[in-house]
Amino acid sequence: MxxxxxxxxxxxxxxxxxxxxxxxxxxxxxxxxxxxxxFALGEPVDPTVLLGLDVLVHCAWDFTPKSxxxxxxxxxxxxxxxxxxxxxxxxxxxxxxxxxxxxxxxKSNYGRAKLAIEHEAPQHHPGVAILRPGLVYDQESxxxxxxxxxxxxxLPVVPVIGGAQVFYTCHAEDLAKAVHELTSAPLPDHPVIxxxxxxxxxxxxxxxxxxxxxxxxAFLPVPHQLAYFGLKxxxxxxxxxxxxxxxxxxxxxxxxxxxxxxxxxxxxxxxRKAIRxx
Length: 278
Fold this sequence. Notes:
With 278 residues, the protein is an alpha/beta fold.
């Protein structure tokens, strides 16, 4: 019998790539605010949308809440309520899409929330596999990578926030394959990182993305404090911006000891060809 999957946040950048991959060997039930099977973090879970599932992939996230209390109520408690409902519905395996911003000592609300779910998840469902992707990209890109590419497409001079930190990248197609692997592999007893294990400075990542888009912008170093308070002010004014102030905290605070390994999936080199879809 083909496997029956469900994916939360299925219409998003990451979720849509995962849906395409899982459909190679099974059926996929798309869960989201505007899907036939409605699901929204922070709202009661309809147990009927989970009945008959073999695997649930949870990658939905609500970035609307700004305070920690609201992030915890909507994203953390909402995710754990989903896990409870999946357990009660007989779902055998959950793959939770976390982040490399999740580590002991993380300072961003996003990383803290993901880490809180990682810690609490085993108490709510016995079969949760945790996957921590790096910076996810492809020829279209979404999330923070998409926001950075949008900035570079508009500005002749691109701000480089911080400078000493390094990042690890993950092509969206490779991430989807890693998720597929974890839907049936032995349950890991620790969070698994999904990224090419090569540290890259922020400026190198920006330069490579700009080159893939046929651009060669100038770069201007910007203190992270200035970027943070600038974005915080824009958020207070409800300005339509893609980059969040909390993302700045995540950018300058990285896991100093990422633990790679644990996956058979290989992650391609971050270069212009990979960004263009090669």
